[in-house]
Every structure is written in structure tokens, then in C-alpha cells.
Amino acid sequence: MSTMLEELEQQARTLSPEERARLADVPLESLRDAPLAEIETAWDPEIEKRVAAYDRGELETFSAENVFAEARRLAR
Asked: What is the pTM of this model?
């Protein structure tokens, strides 16, 4: 491991949890392929549409308890 990387790791450990999370996003974002970013951007209108439908009460919802019970049932 390079000395620079070791120094960066030590410095990162002194940051607050929020700062470390923000710092972690920087290199991760740089690894993303352009097509993935385009796909995520294309999802924005769909997300808005679904949230609006939920707000209007047009979507069927399920309790977390039922969702997890079904997941446990399927995992068996």
C-alpha cells in the first residue's frame, strides 16, 4: 500500500461519520459508467410519477411485517 493511501486513510478516520460518507461517495461516483448515470437519470421521472400516485392513494401498499413474512417464506 502506498504511503499516500495510508495517510489518506488516517486522515479519513478523523472525519465525522457524515464527512466519511460524503468522502466515500466521491471515488464511487468516479467509477460509475456513463450508461449507469444515464439510466439513473431516466428513472427520475418514473420515481416522481410513482411517488405522486402513492400520494394520491392510487397504489396498493403492503406493511413491512407482511413483506418480511413473505420474504422469509420464499427464502425457505
From this structure: 0.44
